[in-house]
Amino acid sequence: MMKYNIKRGLVAGCMLMLSACAKDILNRKPLDSINEIVVWNDINLVSNYVNYFYSTMESGFKRTYYLSAATDNGMDGLANDIYFIKPLTMDASWNPNNAPFNGLYTSLYQNLRKANDFLAHIDGVAGDSTLKKQMKAEVRFFRAYYYTELLNYFGDDPIKASGAAAPSGLVDGYEDALGVAILEKAQEYGKDSLSIARSTRRQTVDYIVSELDAVATMLAQLPASYTNPSGRITHGAAMSLKARVLLFAGRFKAAATASKAVMALSKYSLYPDYKGLFTVKNNTECIISVQHNNIASERGHTYDKDVANGSMSGLAKECPTQNLVDDYEMTDGNLPGASSLYDPQNPYANRDKRFAISVGYDGAVYRGQTLTLYDNGFDILNAGLFKTQTRYLVRKACNESFNFLGDATYGSDQNWLLIRYAEILLNYAEAQNEDAGPDQTVYDAVNSVRRRAGQPDLPSGLTQSDMRLRIRHERRIEFAFEDQRFWDLRRWHLADQLPYRTIYGANIKLSGSTKVFGAPVLLETRYFGIKNYTFPIPASELQSNRLMIQNTNWK
Q: CB-based contacts of 257: which residues, under 8 Å, 6+ apart?
């Protein structure tokens, strides 16, 4: 495995970007006077340096776009994100010079260098040895997290043709394909080479897993008082990220074992209220979350405004599709087309309760008003450019009582759930089913998630293939608008296939005083080529690193 080393004066830049919770300490000196010597001689400043790494975790609420709008679950409003989501879904012309995530590649490697610089200095800092051990483990966690992000976005995918994958989603040669360049040590500028070859996917995953194992061990040995504060990385967090990494790598036996180890901690549980799960901070289901507050200039965000319709002065940046709505079961456990409970002229009645919690639909009361999403309804006529084309709105995780048109110094404050316990259960179910078939433990994991939603247990006697479809369906419903679909369709190698690129909306008209629901309306047929299963290495990186190799289908 290729690794390399460069040491730079990165601390001052980090300190300028520390989260607001650190400002009381930072105010001891002007920000522009804080330098490396000061930082590494003050354990309080070092502790606040760690807060910077917490601020780098990717929150789906803090982006200017929503990944679900680039899947068959969602669609952005007419005028939104034309420079980001549209290229991901409708544009075949972007390339290594202008690809949507080029900036992310750069920022992740910048953060890796900062993490390595921290780890090179921390042992020499005077102070609480237990606190130093905790901080060292946390920064090693973030380093593993950065590599995970790089691998997800930029790891090579050797798929050769549409459908050329095993039923599990794996393709031949996947682990031997190129992963990412690994920088394990702080670099010495002017001494170490700036050129480094990429490790393979197998080597990259092995490195991430070994780091997370070490982090989990270190954090498990700490007194509870060090890891109790809400939002801190714990040994369960490290174990959970490891389970996800192994599942995404297709190492199903290891992923099942890792997921089961998290379950055996008996530390996490399904939060009983699916709606409250997303607004009650740091609840029992939360394993890793990005912490937010309601101060717009600090950790506040604009999610509530982003998903509201233009008729409410929102931006409609992600709107549920008819594709997704049709996948919400009826309360008898059947899909609408197979259920006697389904009435095509009252299509939203008798649905899985996660539907009404996640989706705003015509006739629903949303933000204190009844939605009129039929043709020429108030919410369509008065939305301007920022209207839902699908005739649905995202409701999941919204704080409908927050007035986003009020004092601009305040923002939405819901935490972003990066990993929650339901994912561990469904990760286990998928991995165990792929490795051993649908044994009782697979049923138990899936059914526990379904029972929280009030849905019937899965029928007995399912084949491995049947169970695979059920698990994928459950993931779609349970994790709608949580970024999971973006990655699931890629790792299952389904995203290029026509059913996942053909986007539909509702067709609702008013005949007198009666609403008439017609056949769904085709809104988009999206572009997704084989090369889009990964993103290209930025052209600037290829120019500066003579050993860098472009991803297979981007050459």
A: none
Q: What Cα–Cα distance (Å) separates residue 448 from each residue in 332, 336, 429, 478?
A: 16, 22, 11, 12
DSSP 536: P
Q: Is 513 exposed, middle or buried (0-12, 13-18, 19+ CB in 10 A)?
A: exposed
Q: At what angle do helices 235-248 and 421-436 cross, to 10 degrees?
A: 40
In whole angstroms, what is the distance from residue 283 CA to residue 268 CA? 9
Structure tokens at 456: 């019937």
Tens of pLDDT, residues 236-289: 999 999 999 999 999 999 999 999 999 999 999 999 999 999 999 999 999 999
User: Are 87 and 94 a contacting pair, CB within 8 Å?
Assistant: yes
Q: Which of 102, 75, 101, 105 is nearest to 90 (CA)?
A: 75
Q: Which of 145, 188, 177 is nearest to 4 (CA)?
A: 188
The percent of the chain in helix, strand and coil, each rounded to the nearest 5, is: 45, 10, 45
Task: Report whether 323 contacts 504 (CB < 8 A).
Answer: yes
Which residue type, as a one-letter code, is found at position 533? Y
Q: pLDDT tens-digit profile of 39-83?
A: 899 999 999 999 999 999 999 999 988 999 999 999 998 755 666
- A 10 A CB-CB count for 16 gives 12
Among candidate residues 477, 420, 476, 399, the one with its CA nearest the CA of residue 289: 420
Q: How far apart, in whole angstroms, are the C-alpha atoms of residue 491 and residue 485?
A: 10
Biggest alpha carbon distance in the chain? 78
CA 76 to chain CA mean position, Å = 18
What's the rounded Cα separation, in Å, for the pair 313 and 1? 52
Return the ∠ at Cα 244 (arms to 264 and 155), rounded to 5°: 160
- Give the C-alpha separation, 231 to 295, whole Å: 18
> Does the predicted TM-score (pTM) go above 0.85?
yes
How many other C-beta atoms can be found within 10 angstroms of the C-beta atom of residue 126?
11
Say yes or no to pLDDT of 212 above 70: yes
Please state, in angstroms and rounded to a whole number, the distance separating the CA atoms of residues 19 and 302: 18
Give helix 201-220 / helix 235-248 axis angle, nearest 10°. Answer: 160
How many CA atoms does the CB half-sphere of 416 hold within 13 Å? Answer: 24
